[in-house]
Amino acid sequence: MDNKVVNVEEELAKDMGKLVDGDARGWTEEELPVGLIRERIPRHVAVLTVFAFSTGNWVRPQVEIDFLMNTFEIFLRDLKVFIRNEVRVSIIGDTTKLPIGLQDAITKTSQATKNYAKLHVILAINYGGREDIIQACQSLCRKVNDNLIEPKDINENLIKQELETKCTEFPYPDLLIRTSGEHRLSNFLMWQLAYTELYFEECLWPDFGEKEFVKALLSFQGRQRRYGGQGLDEEVRRG
Q1: Which SUPFAM superfamilies match (predicted)?
Q2: SS3 track for 178-226
Q3: 116-131: per-residue pLDDT in tens?
Q4: Distance (Å, rounded) from C-alpha 49 to C-alpha 36?
């Protein structure tokens, strides 16, 4: 690994989004837990949001859906891996439509790991970016109806607070990685990705290890993020 990549942290992505596509079928029960935590992720990354299953994936063959749901449950029940690596796990998406066993695993693991801070893994299961925006708008409408806020109060910050990514202090990914040669967002974090840098990789997710992560981060490191401006300094861009 290039030590410069590890040391110059201010130039690196700390919050990353990851679309795993259909290649999640390549996971094995043994590979899934370690494939999303410290054995493969560079140490400075604080948040990894993984698009594991979208609201549109229910049209897939039932045998594939059953396999994925079972795999997610196995992953979430492996508490010793998260505890050993001090990984916090959160789930975003409509969990009410998931199998009861998976819902139970989500509740227990989210609660058991909520105080860990070395890495925050956010799994998007039965999640859709458009649906996320809709539910945020509906929540704000209810608050207006309850006289908690005025319509004129609604701004980007209030919307951010209603999106499902409110579970992290870094809701806007610095870098989005998409594997398996696909070049589209597929309804993932549609609001949050407004200024995210995009990186596309031909290899499949099970083959995407630390070497590939570093390659993606090197690409990110060489870019100038303008946030709609022309090379503004960090304080202005983040302000």
Answers
A1: Undecaprenyl diphosphate synthase
A2: ECCCCCCCCCCCCCCCCCCEEEECCCCHHHCCHHHHHHHHHHHHCCCCC
A3: 998 899 999 999 999 9
A4: 10
Instruction: Please give the sequence-ordered ranges of beta strands (E in DSSP) within the chain, or none if there are none.
Output: 15-19, 47-54, 87-92, 119-127, 175-178, 197-200
CA distance 180 to 210: 16
Main-chain phi, psi angles of 37, to 5 degrees: -130, -155
Residue 140 placed within a domain: no
The residues pairing with 54 across neighbouring beta strands, listed in sequence order, are 127
* Count of the separate structural domains present in the chain: 1
Which tokens go with 79?
């508490």
Closest C-alpha to 168, from 231, 92, 99, 83: 92
- The answer, as to whether pTM is greater than 0.90, is no
CATH of the domain at 28: 3.40.1180.10
Range of weakest confidence among 71-85, 100-114, 152-166: 71-85
Q: What average pLDDT does the segment 42-59 reach? A: 87
Residue 155 lies inside a defined structural domain of this protein: no
Catalytic pick from 2, 21, 66, 78?
21
The reply to whether 21 belongs to the active site is yes
Tokens of 81: 């891996």
How far apart are the C-alpha atoms of 185 and 76, rounded to whole Å? 25
The answer to whether 229 and 236 have CB atoms below 8 angstroms apart is yes
